[in-house]
Amino acid sequence: MHTTVGIIGGGPAGLLLARLLHRAGVDSVVLERRDRAHVEHRQRAGLLEQATADVLRAAGAGARLDREGKVHQGFELRFARRSHRIDLAALTGGRTATMYAQTEVVKDLITLQLAEGGPLLFGAEARAVDGADTGRPAVRYLHQGRERTLTCDYVVGCDGSHGVARGAVPERLRTTYQQTHPYSWLGILADAPPVYEELVYAHSERGFALASMRSPVVSRLYLQVPNGTDPADWPDERIWDELDARLALDADPGRRLTRGPVTATTVVPMRSQVTEPMRYGRLFLAGDAAHIVPPTGAKGLNLAVADVVVLARALVHRHTTGSPELLEAYSDTCLRRVWRAEHFSHAMTRLLHTDPHGTPFEARLQLAQLERLVTSPHAAAEFADNYTGAPLVPAS
Ligand code: RFL
Ligand code: PHB
């Protein structure tokens, strides 16, 4: 089989890239290791930057997003048993975020791809990328028990943080920068109405907590836990008790933590990682395959979308004009945004979590920084600008 763009990975990055290329008349094949149900039900991100929602709309994937997504104008920040509202829209001249789960984005893109797009093969596991530095790269993959080869003009690794594409860049040419944070998130889904119509981020001496939502009857909640935590050590009652203690809603008549059956529990390590460059010859890396942020700032999916928007534009430019200049600029263009988001995600993570190795002095500094955020319009505006996200394609 031959295609113009071979895409490894059918997560949000790979699916959206295939969609954008299809709309511009460039053919592609998507190879996805897992089956459709697995990909559609993997619980992950929830919050879309405005620019991400706009891209999905422009790609013809905005109908259900507009019906079911909830626009968030701000969020609540709680610390020292007090509550503050960060008014994102007021601080940014009208920018907002939209709560629409990654599972739903993926379902919408898969439906479109199967109805109108090029091949999307489930159960197709890429094993290796050959000849990335030649004019005719190829992906070797396993499908229905047989090894096959997909020859391509370009290969894009959208295969997440544990994929194979990154390994096809020779080690001497790639640098990985990384940091593991000294805590993880215990994430749960519960059949219980959300705490509040907006997100609630809480810093407490007991650790960080986040109250998010998936629907009017399903809550998504996160607790800071030590690395290596076994979810089995967190029976439902312990989770609810800890959320109660950290969110400290008792003083606030407008908010209530309603308990309900916990339907899923996962532990997510908090990692920061960037691999440079994001291109080797005709192989490009996009999304989690190239960079990971801790989920605190809700940036991972949005960064994946930003990468593939830049890449689709560059591939289409090459296809229609023959000029490789945008493809050559791809890595540098994306990395500027990636490092901005890495910095913000890292800073927001450190601002809100309780460092198990921190000193009392550092804990006081952290409170001083939180105070600054809720009392200085300048500090709040800088935060809100980062949280709501930069425009997708830089002006220059
Ligand atoms: P994905 O989603 O990991 O998809 C990669 C796909 O590649 C497939 N694959 C292969 N296919 C073929 N051959 C191989 N050899 C393959 N190896 C892997 C995999 O099966 C998979 O389908 O990467 P992608 O597309 O780059 O998307 C990135 C996002 O998924 C990720 O950044 C976000 O989920 C991060 N994230 C959040 N991002 C946000 O923007 N907003 C949020 O609110 C947000 N919250 C979160 C998050 C991530 C979380 N976890 C679980 C880490 C909350 C959590 C808890
Ligand atoms: C989520 O709903 O999963 C979510 C929301 C906001 C974040 C992180 C995760 O900052």
Per DSSP E runs of 2 or more residues, the count of β-strands stands at: 19
Cα gyration radius (Å): 21 Å
Sequence of secondary-structure elements: EHEHEHHEEEHEHEEEEEEEEHEEEEHHHH
Gross morphology: globular
The share of residues in helices is: 25-40%
Helix count equals 11
CATH architecture of the domain at 2-72 and 100-179 and 270-369: 3-Layer(bba) Sandwich
Give the distinct bound molecules: 8-demethyl-8-dimethylamino-flavin-adenine-dinucleotide, P-hydroxybenzoic acid
What number is the mean pLDDT? 96
Based on secondary structure, the structural category is alpha+beta
Just give the CATH class of the domain at 2-72 and 100-179 and 270-369.
Alpha Beta
- In terms of per-residue confidence, which ranges show pLDDT below 50 for 5 or more consecutive residues? none
Instruction: Return the CATH topology of the domain at 2-72 and 100-179 and 270-369.
Output: FAD/NAD(P)-binding domain
Q: Per DSSP, what share of the residues sits in E-state strands of 2 or more residues? A: 25-35%
Describe it.
The longest helix is centred in the C-terminal third of the chain and has 28 residues. The protein has a domain of 251 residues: FAD/NAD(P)-binding domain (3-Layer(bba) Sandwich). The chain has eleven helices and 19 strands. With 396 residues, it is an alpha+beta fold. Strands 1, 2, 8, 9, 10, 11, 17 and 18 form an eight-stranded mixed sheet that branches. The protein has an eight-stranded mixed sheet with strand order 6-5-13-14-15-12-16-19. The chain has a three-stranded antiparallel sheet with strand order 3-7-4. The two termini are 39 Å apart. It is globular and about 65 Å long. P-hydroxybenzoic acid binds next to loops.
